[in-house]
Amino acid sequence: MKKITFRLILAAATAILPGACTEQVSVDLDSTYTRLVVDGQITTDTTRHYVKLTQTMDYFSNQPAQPVTGAKVMINDHRLRENDTIPGLYQTDPDFFGVIGRTYHLSIDRVDIDADGHSEHYQATSRINSIARVDSLELVYQEFAGGIMKMWGLELFAQDPPEENYYLFKVHKNDTLLTDTIDEYVIQEDMTFNGNYVPGVMVQSLEKSKKDEVVRPGDVITLEANGITQEYYKYIIELTNEAGPSNPLFSGPRANVRTNISGGNGPVGFFRAYSITRLSLRVDDPYEKVKKW
């Protein structure tokens, strides 16, 4: 799985570094122009959806990203309100929800990122795609390479729709989202099972070495499956590649991470719209089903 591979590589790199060269390296990075950063989403959940606006900072500024306040932010004909206590966070009404098959248009106005005295306009679009019909979920304890890695795998049974689909999987334990960073996401395209029944494919995992991921009797494990766009799928791949180890170690970026935000002076970030389905199970015996590889 992508999640496992990333962590093994990172652990191996960390283990090697202490015995490597300890010479101090000084790198001078030029300043660049300020750009708008957009982080926004709308889903099929009924909740306050959000768009967060900040601006880029120099790499060694040692300052948090500055929020962009006072903007006019719209999703279709719905205007988002800026949060009273969190500057730069714009939210929908609490009864707002996205609809599968509908395209959502984000527009941002009344911002002046380049400080030239003229307001800029930014925009993005994203469509909410359909998602597989989830039948059931199984928790399977697994050991790899003679017990070097121990984990619980979440195996999904579902009917994939006939069209091309892309999925993002997250996992909750009780009321806590465990996969709360992008490097913990598991993404999957349906090329190998398009339109067919998926008979128990592992789509997320909980590692025994992590205290908050250990499964105990009585725990409720929830798999969250998101039906995402191909563009967002590729964005996640590019972002995790850039955040991961480089080879050679100090090589430059492979390429700029894509964005679906246009307008203004080269904005970055992503606006995504996606469907959500969830399935939960209560654990009686965490070791009832075991696989060893």
CATH level-3 fold name of the largest domain: Immunoglobulin-like
The helix/strand order is: HEEEEEEEEEEEEEEEEHEEE
Task: Please estimate the helix content.
Answer: under 10%
Mean pLDDT: 87
- Taking the alpha carbons of the first and last residues, their distance comes to 14 Å
Structure description:
The protein is mainly beta and 293 residues long. It folds into two domains: 33-129 and 259-273, Immunoglobulin-like; 130-231 and 276-292, Sandwich (Immunoglobulin-like), CATH 2.60.40. Helix content is 10%, strand content 41%. It has two helices and 19 strands. The protein has helices at residues 2-16, 230-243; strands at residues 36-43, 50-55, 66-67, 72-75, 78-79, 81-82, 89-91, 103-111, 120-127, 133-144, 149-159, 166-173, 176-177, 186-189, 197-207, 220-228, 262-263, 268-282, 290-292. The strands form three sheets. Strands 1, 2, 3, 6, 7, 12, 13, 14, 16 and 18 form a ten-stranded mixed beta sheet that branches. The longest helix is centred in the first third of the chain and has 15 residues, at 2-16. The chain is globular. The two termini are 14 Å apart. Residues 1-20 have low confidence and may be disordered.
Layout of secondary structure:
Blueprint: H1 2-16, E1 36-43, E2 50-55, E3 66-67, E4 72-75, E5 78-79, E6 81-82, E7 89-91, E8 103-111, E9 120-127, E10 133-144, E11 149-159, E12 166-173, E13 176-177, E14 186-189, E15 197-207, E16 220-228, H2 230-243, E17 262-263, E18 268-282, E19 290-292
Parallel strand pairs: 1-18, 10-19
Antiparallel strand pairs: 1-2, 2-3, 2-7, 4-5, 4-8, 6-7, 8-9, 9-17, 10-11, 11-15, 12-13, 12-14, 12-16, 16-18
